[in-house]
Amino acid sequence: MSDTLEIVSNDDAIYEHIKEIIQEESQKFVLEIFSFEFELVESHTNFIEENELFIPYENYLFTKEILLEIFKVLKMNDVEFASTTLAKLNKEIEFLDFKYKEFKKNIKNVKLLFSNNLASKSDIIYYLNSEIINFKKHKNLSENMQKELQSLEKMFYKFKHYYLLEFSDIYFEYKTYIEDSFKQILNSYLLYFEKLMWIEAKKSEKIVEKFNVLSIKNLDTKSYLIYQLKVMQPYSSKYNKYLKALRNYK
Amino acid sequence: MNLDFNLEDIEIFLDISEEIENESPNQSLKKLLSVQDRIDIFKDIDSMELKALVYDVEFKKYKFKDYIIKDGEYSENIFFIIKGECHIFKNNKNIAKLSPGETFGEIGAIFKQERTADVVAANNDTVLLKFKIDEENLEFNARALAILYKNLAFAISNKLQELNIAYINIKK
Question: Which of A22, A98, A70 is CA-nearest to residue A197?
Fold first, then answer.
């Protein structure tokens, strides 16, 4: 990668300066693209860190749909069982999950993003491009000038390629960071959601009665999954998903 | 970006955090955690990570001549001998004896291969701890899985070395 830039300049100081400009411009542009998501995950990550909330080693993302489904079932049995905290947590999980899926869906081809957007916004690319245009404006270019133009165009092409590689690195670094943060936040919130859901379900007479009627041993996810596995069509995809979800409950 | 959670919500979260911290694992898992240091493939894995790494943890008693593993079968169980001994048979020939503290079945379980030998209890009251590894949880337990694979590579290398020595001795 650095070989390409060395063609642009062999001078170390200029090389470093240009590299710095490219990185600054790329970072600014990536933050512009991901501004909402970046701010969203930063605020939730800070909240989790400040309050020392757990991020479990178990994968609760895998059980997310099951937990949200249980929440709906419990609500059907007692519409008033959920506190405002639990309701807020449920809303927050659904919102974050939606934004996470949207984020993954909107990830663009980095080459297209660069050529369609960044290339026109970059000061340094704009400057080099206008130099070439100015050069081309000269009428009756001498042979030497034509050679110079050719080498300038070649250099510009290589420079853009180098720029794309730098931009791509920064773009994917942010993309990975945001994606990982979404997963960590959701995993943590799902753990708290699950715990709080059962704490509150146990306080509801209607839910406790319903579980007794169904002979579900305890008011927890494990017992609920075991009950569902007994009454469900075996070896269907839902059955396998429920069976796999049991792994989180030792 | 302002979050919707207020002080009252945070207090509830902190209570749950305390509950999680004080949660005690079930008996089988507790036992597995207590012998964790003796199981080579779990060396250097944090106990919280180990809790998330294993599932279907169970203690099982076997009688003399009970089959623990059958050649050609498929299962993901790994076994740790708590009490008693086990014999390994290949083509009805007794090829090895396993003692308390030894682990077996890990290669077939991790590499999803058919079992390559029979393992039979050598005494009455042979007690084994069996468990499975949740390999699909790479997202949140990558460190533990990486260590597990490293330990496993080491265990396989040791077994190969033992086989080499045995082969050299036979040749002599």
Answer: A70
